[in-house]
Design brief:
CATH class of the largest domain in chain A: Alpha Beta
Number of domains of chain A: 3
Helix content of chain A: 25-40%
Oligomer: homodimer
Largest sheet of chain A: 7 strands, mixed
CATH architecture of the largest domain in chain A: 2-Layer Sandwich
Distance between the termini of chain A: 61 Å
Shape of chain A: globular
Chain lengths: 761, 761
């Protein structure tokens, strides 16, 4: 059957939710209304760091229309702390507020206006404390501590290796070594070294965080939430409220973009707490400024030394990375650990020393963001690679190609072998950008590559149901957040079972009924959830073949599925007919099960990934030497995806990734001064607009069907973002001779650098 | 493992939904409110039979607040006919109204008052036609025809043998013969013969029918409905609106009693039609009088001849049964076919001739009602058995015992063997009522027995999910309608997986996510759905054992589950530990699958049942000779259930069955005059009150674990109702010498019979 040409997989079919989305009828969490539902508002700390001496909610509580008003001290009836790495984050500040915008009190009332007014009746007695706002301040001797004590561990066993360093602001420290990097660097012919900074940036999902929580008459909790991983949220809520997992239902309607900002619990604990206190459903929806106060990308300072032999062979990399994880750990320590482990990128490096620190500061907590720590490192390594090429007098493309890990080569001894062809991606990118042809005089070109691990261990499960009329229901918990996973899962089930797309329905994630899926992030849904759906559909297929084999008296191997029927050389049994034979009546369904759980390996971190994400970017830029404004004129992204289940959606993913990458490359940075975030609104925080996108933007895919996902697919979606900054900076450097180390490449920074440059060689 | 003493199964644990129900917090369909939801009202025919010449909804449609006003002629955009046996029932009357109360037009409006007012703006031009109100009228030569043409077949293949007789009011005719009944009756030593009437009665579920329908933005339909079989409703709606099964979601919250009235589509087609027309969610809730206009029990006239040898051996039964199925077939033809096939009751009868007719009349459609046609037949046969005992000068208990089918004996050649011990039930009943001791002078005692088939073929499926914390979710589609199925399924999963009841959650039926279950009726949920849950839980158990065997290095046969852990002789692995080993992380779930599908057999009707329901009743009655009022002083019900999964719930079921049986025995009858139902409200229609129940009412269970259901259980819930009428009438006959043949045994009927009786022998 595998030799059969693919019917819907691999084709650019329109997304199954297209019409509901373009008509505005698709429903998101905030579209939900429940009878008696209250609306919540949050009072937030005006200080980056303050002792909270007293919170008086008496007057707020007494206001007509208010159902609940809570401060941290009220939360004696649940565990008020949560967080995936450590439970260091209180639902509402308890004793101390650790960043500007931290929730200090909250109100649930009959409507939003009443809740807002009630907030003004809450008296908070703050004692301002000295904040630490930067990595340097936080790591200084005698720095004020963001957290005084040792936070309890989180509830996720696979994060239990994370450890804060007591008495410091170090939230986690990661170290990894292979070979002898110091000696190898000492013996290298050419050593390049520099430090690169990556700014704190916001995800700016079109839909800010939202949750509607309702406790039912049996004491069970249902939560409609804008979350990328309902199952992780379920764990945290179960522990907070001491309720079995089976009695917490997290439902995820359409999601208006995640990019990592909606992984792990965010607003959900507060919504659930308020709903319990108010004894009614509660809706809590963040504004855009509140999203800036909820989570961001971890800023970083990454120092890399790389040693080469004269012939260009990379022999050693030493990397010291500090990441600013803000006031609460969130998943920051894991971002740091996971990202840094692959700091050597897609290259073969015999001698490695990697050290990284996750550092608390009094700023918005840093968490997961598309790329999960890798963009910060690739910005450093890929910039430095071009510096090395200069020093070695080598073409940057050739130097990379020389050092790429080969297809099938283990990333590290015992770890997942490389499942793609990096050289093919790079060649495609180089060819598309016209690397070997000289650019126009006012243009410069640069390339960058990246390799990224997905989450590991990684578990996805799915159930596929074939109904009596041959239509199909897929139960899986991958979140549709705009990336098109619902369409992709529909295609996979339709392909395996040979039915039209319109006869497949994918149920929205709902932990009460759709089976476990670890997370919709880490570029994993197609590869992992998609594979689970494929296996579940194949389970149904095998049941169909067995029914037909028995009833037609034909060996199962001589049967195939086609157009909603089991086809034998001379006969045909439609699915309704097959089911009627199986059940002896016009009812009954076939249930298929797919469980994908590669498990842990002996490799570092228990094995780094079930598949590798690989991408190359090539940029052609111009610069206005008068203003320093950099413009990306052309951009080519090439991702090795194994198989494009839906090329249209994949192109959308990768175009979006490139443009989002242009944000932190050219425009975006959360700016703090005097403990205050200066630009936490979309009026002043500049994300790319349509006219910031390259006039020529191409996304290509390498498809060798060499992935472990469905039909040879691998993950995609994060890869295209990561090479953008170094590719653009490398292009700028090749055009102007100016090497910038701090993102974003704002006109002012570029202008200053151009002014300061030594005459070009 | 099976030898282990049962921990929760077999114990009278309180129902899992007790608190939500006694506090009034349990939610039913009518508790649901959706944003923008419209309320529907129905205009009904005032005539039993009329041509509907014109329905003008123009003024209703124009009324402010009205979203839709529909008549039958408007339904050109869907198939407006539905019905399980035949699609003979229009959503709204088309051309003809066939019974008083038939929906003719309907309105969806902003609230109920507006909808009600809009009904008054609808003009209907009726031309009254001659109705047929009784079996006699309907079967008379040249009777007016309720249906002129041949209705299209229903959508259920297993009902495709049903056939109306064109040009008559005969909706279906069933015939069955074995041996030569005419010859055997001719040669019998004693032949008894009589005809017995059973009245049309109403189910009087505390919750009348209700449905909320909502079409979503993708053109899929969600329906919250008070239905006993969401999957059958799904089929009918899918066909009506030409939508794949996978895109119709039928959700069933708590149900306030069904008793068969909520099998197959009732209000759901109209609710869905109005929702589509109104382009918004629509709520349609029947009043109690409207329930009287929706469905009822089929009235009957059953003539039986039974031939015995002098020694008491029953040699032949001939039965001619006519059932009044009202204006639309509903499932009436199947009631007649199915019931009549077992008209010989629990007895060995070599020569059988059974004929039955389902007959259309211009009355409320007759459908399923607890007992599914058997109470009507048992009323006749079991009364006649006592007549025969009199004639043979035999004790009625002994005569029955002599003729009972034996354990393991096939009901009919090739059909399901008897899976219980009838003699044990009868002996227990006789002993409990003190049969061998003389009653007080003013008391009489009677017994009756019954055997009933469940639906066949019969399919139930279940999914059981074991979560990372060892809590359990059960996905199954048996409807909780007061009988306690949610508790029973919880017990079964908790027993197999050895976890506390509080850690098991049973999800409410929802065709989008809970797997196929044929119907919650026919006393099948414990035996069939329960067995599916058991198998699914055992599937999870086997996965747990395999994980533990592999990780502990112990053979799976040496392992057992206990207290949420896999227990080896010297070690213990909790479920969370086992899952962490399997998945290499703190996530992932085990998915178990249970599919129960006994299939068809070569026996008549494809095999009559997956299990037999068997019960015996014994009544002790008194009569007020002045008024004719019969009082049941004591009643003993004995049911052979194989295993009482929950004795407390089972007792509740059987007590309820006895009391409901007392309704049609003593009190209930839908009375018609001049084409009008006279007593279609609870003010005048008398159901048993607390003071009508016997002061001593005992329910006993025979438990030999000989059923094919979980832990040896069989079905229960209908059996106790069926012997009530003949046991009471037999007691009355033994007390007074008066044999009544028409139910209910009203004081007037009894008084007249007492006055007319010949002096007692």
């Amino acid at each position: 059957m595998s030799a059969r040409p693919l019917r819907v997989v691999g084709h650019p079919v329109p997304r199954v939710d297209a019409i509901e989305k373009v008509t505005g009828r698709a429903r998101y969490v905030t579209d939900l209304t429940l009878p008696g539902m209250a609306h919540a508002k949050v009072l937030r700390s005006p200080y980056a760091h303050a002792r909270v001496r007293r919170v008086d909610v008496t007057r707020a509580r007494a206001r007509p229309g208010v159902f609940a008003a809570l401060a941290g001290a009220d939360l004696t009836w649940c565990d008020p702390y949560y967080g995936p790495a450590y439970r260091d984050r209180p639902v509402l500040a308890i004793g101390v507020a650790r960043y500007e915008g931290e929730p200090v009190a909250a109100v649930a009332a009959v409507d939003e206006a009443t809740a807002e007014e009630a907030l003004e009746l809450i008296d908070v007695d703050y004692e301002p404390l000295a904040p630490v706002m930067t990595l340097e301040e936080a790591l200084a001797e005698d720095a004020p501590l963001v957290h005084a004590g040792q936070p309890p561990a989180g509830h996720f066993a696979d994060l239990s290796t994370l450890r804060p360093r007591p008495g410091t602001n170090i939230c986690h420290q990661f170290q990894f070594a292979r070979g002898d990097a110091a000696a190898a660097l000492g013996g290298a012919d050419v050593v390049v070294e520099d430090a690169y900074r990556f700014p704190p940036v916001q995800h700016v999902a079109l839909e800010p965080h939202a949750a509607v929580a309702a406790w039912d008459e049996t004491g069970a909790l249902t939560l409609w939430a804008s979350t990328q991983n309902p199952y992780s949220v379920r764990v945290e809520l179960a522990k907070m409220f001491d309720v079995p997992l089976a009695r917490i239902r997290v439902v995820v309607p359409h999601l208006g973009g995640g990019f990592g900002s909606k992984t792990y619990a965010k607003l959900e604990p507060l919504a659930a707490t308020l709903a319990r206190a108010a004894a009614r459903p509660v809706r809590l929806a963040a504004s855009v400024p509140e999203a800036f106060q909820t989570v961001r990308r971890c800023a970083s300072r990454v120092a890399v030394r790389a040693g080469f032999r004269r012939d260009g062979t990379l022999v050693a990399v030493a990397c010291d990375a500090d990441y600013d994880v803000g006031a609460y750990a969130d998943i920051g320590p894991r971002v740091v650990q996971k990202g840094t482990y692959t700091a050597t990128g897609p290259y073969r490096v015999p001698h490695v020393r990697l050290e990284a620190r996750a550092v608390y500061t009094n700023t918005t907590p840093g968490g997961a963001f598309r790329g999960f720590g890798v963009p910060q490192l690739a910005w450093a390594l890929e910039s430095l690679f071009d510096v090395a090429a200069d020093r070695l007098d080598r073409d940057p493309v050739d130097l990379r190609r020389q050092n790429f890990l080969a297809h099938g080569e283990e990333f590290a001894p015992g770890d997942t072998p490389i499942d793609g062809k990096l050289e093919e991606s790079l060649s495609r990118a180089a060819e598309a950008i016209g690397w070997t042809r000289a650019p126009a005089a006012d243009r410069g070109r640069g390339v960058a590559a990246m390799l990224k691990a997905s989450v590991a261990p990684s578990v996805s499960e799915a159930i596929v149901r074939l109904h009596a009329d041959g239509s199909v229901t897929v139960l899986a918990s991958a979140v549709e957040m705009g990336q098109g996973t619902r369409t992709v899962l529909t295609q996979i089930a339709a392909e395996v079972l040979s039915v039209p797309l319109a006869r497949v329905t994918v149920v929205q994630p709902d932990t009460a009924v759709t089976p476990y899926d670890q997370t919709t992030s880490s570029s994993r849904s197609t590869a992992m959830t998609g594979r689970a759906v494929q296996v579940a559909a194949e389970d149904v297929r095998d049941q169909l073949l067995a029914i037909a084999a028995q009833n037609l008296g034909v060996a199962a191997r001589e049967l195939a599925l086609a157009d909603g029927a089991v086809v034998a050389p001379a006969r045909r049994l439609t699915y309704p007919e097959a089911l009627a034979l199986k059940f002896g009546m016009s009812g009954g369904e076939l249930i298929g099960r797919g469980v994908i759980a590669p498990g842990r390996t002996a490799a570092p971190l228990g094995g780094s990934t079930p598949f590798w994400e690989m991408a190359v970017g090539a940029a052609e830029v111009s610069v206005d030497e008068e203003t320093g404004a950099v413009r990306v004129e052309r951009y080519v992204s090439v991702a090795d995806v194994g198989r494009a289940i839906n090329p249209l959606l994949l192109e959308g993913q990768d175009e979006g990734g490139v443009v989002q990458g242009l944000g932190h490359t050219l425009l975006e940075e959360m700016l703090y001064a005097d403990g205050h975030l200066l630009n936490g609104t979309l009026l002043v925080y500049r994300v790319p607009r349509a006219d910031d996108t390259p006039s020529e933007l191409e996304c290509h895919f390498v498809e060798n069907a060499d992935g472990s996902g469905p039909f040879g697919a691998k993950g995609a979606g994060e890869g295209s973002l990561i090479p953008v900054s170094p590719a653009v900076a490398n292009a700028l450097a090749r055009l102007t001779g100016v090497r910038l180390r701090d993102l974003p490449l704002t006109p002012e920074r570029v202008w200053r650098a151009l002014r300061a440059r030594s005459p070009r060689a």
